[in-house]
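Onboarding guide, step 5: your first structure request.
Type a short instruction followed by the sequence, for example:

Predict the 3D structure of this protein.
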Amino acid sequence: MVLAREVTAIRSGLGRAVFGMVAGPDGPDNRARIHGTPGPRWFAEDRPIRRVHADASMFVGGLRALLLQSLHPLAMAGVADHSDYRADPWGRLQRTSTFLAVTTFGPDADAQRAVNKVRGIHRRVRGVTPDGTAYEAGDPHLLEWVHIAEIDSFLLAHQLYGARPLDQASRDAYVADTARVATALGVLDPPRTEGELRERITAYRPELRGTPAARDAARFLLLTPPLPLPARAPYGVLAATAVAMLPAWARKPLWLPYFPPLETTAVRAAGRVLVGGIRWVMTAGQEEHAPGRRASTAR
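The system replies with structure tokens like these:
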């Protein structure tokens, strides 16, 4: 009995630490507002977007998305020139996490306000790349690349490491759900099926390449994130799992390794253990306060 209480206390403590890193100091208040405010939502409770975005696989999917997004030189230029990801990487993670939570689970009005805020930021993000190409974060074509790289990563991570992977119909429905948010952000014609998603990614490939800024960001994300010593080994597993989900064509420009036999055995097994562990600690508080409800990694 004493041991069980100790395990519960450790689990709860780890869950709070992980949640604090992802959601920030305002996380508990944001969670209460997002889930406790009455009113209509963009997505009903049975929609696949809620199932995917509530799963711990989002951790590995999010890191994979950042690596894939960096391959577009205009998207990477916007991050390098206007983002403080090196000085405040957890702040960026927390803002992204909150946006996903609000648009997926929050009331209509809050979701729209979150979108409006992002669009306002995008209007100020513009510049010129080192080769003289102008960019604007609000460019619908650039927004689409960021969107499809993100949802492709979330969907793949959920299929490999999610608690309840989706069937084909639900995967198509997930892509269609995310199109609702993409359209609100300014994407003109986002994909609405998994097949369309694959086609769009293929269509963007001629525009993608590794730049010094992209490789620098990959090194920072994978090798030198500001983490306390106890967190470095688990994060190493998370990083290896994210890299293993990238296709070969996406790794070469970033100078990332490619070892298929090892990745489909040892790395995937380690990834399942890690994501399962994150899921276990993240659901501790939710089980204590609201039995039966699933916890969201973005909440």
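Each response can be followed by summary notes, for example: The chain has 15 helices and two strands.
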